[in-house]
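Final report, Chapter 2: Outcomes

The project's central promise was a pipeline that accepts a single protein chain and returns its three-dimensional structure in a standardized token representation, suitable for archiving and comparison. That pipeline is now operational. To close this chapter, we reproduce one record exactly as it appears in the project archive, with the input sequence first and the structure output second.
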Amino acid sequence: MKVLIIPRDGLGDLVLSLPLASALKKHRPDWEVFYLVSRKQASMTWEHPLVDGEILMESGLAVYEKARLLRSFRFDIAIDLYPSPESALTLALAGIPQRVGTMYRWFSLLYSHRVKIRKHPSIKHEAKYNLEYLTPLGISEELERPRLYLREEEKRWARQLLRGLPKPVIAINPSSGGTSRNWPFERYRDLADKLKEIGFGIVITGDQGPEINIGETVDTRGKTSVRELMAILEAVSVLISSSTGPMHIACALDTPTVSLFYPEGVAGPTRWGPLHPRSIVLTSKPGDRNLETIGIDAVIEAVEKILESPG
């Protein structure tokens, strides 16, 4: 049997769908598991022992072009974690016999197997919601932490990049892609300056943004591939960010995080928090959507607590 998993289109969304691959391989070890990925997600599952391959779906293709591409792979099952009319129609036109999707959309009749999942209000983690899509296949599994994997040469590249920085090295990811509440950029800049004064090495990750201008840091914003970002996050001791894809990537590479969240709504830590036992979540006060009630000193204290904890 060949299974296609269609995650949502963010970096973190792919990470939080990886427990499906683990559960499928545990219960159906002879099945092949593939991921449908966007351009920005491509290569994330390389080296993963439970993923048999990726299929890149370029943006801008018509439904019939997408269906023709998928039909060529002769999938038996598709699990659609990113439901839309176009996605549901594409899977049906691709001739995939078993198509698992949500029950609660007007286009749900295009799925052969419909799952009763409501995410509002959000009472569990997104990764647990994703596992419920395996129910029609007769698979029930507890959540295991998602994992990502790197080649040794990728790890060496990151160590070489960061070799001149003081240890331990802390990564700061100021950008959020507009998908979550976040600190003002100036707060991240002040945090980096203070961490550097204490003696930490600093690497900046994420999208391009304003200059940091504090000297003796490695600023990789807008300069790395997703695999290079993964290697950097694996090499550091802690990542500081809001709720972002890099946060989930770091956890999947066994790097703990200090994660900044707004506590209320569907974007809160109950649904999107970091899946790492040593990560620390800091939340703002209700109503503070810029997270400014989370102080710099509280973040530094959390970093130090993580570094003092066993692991």
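Archive annotation: The mean pLDDT is 95.
This record, like all others produced under the grant, will remain available to the consortium after the project formally closes.
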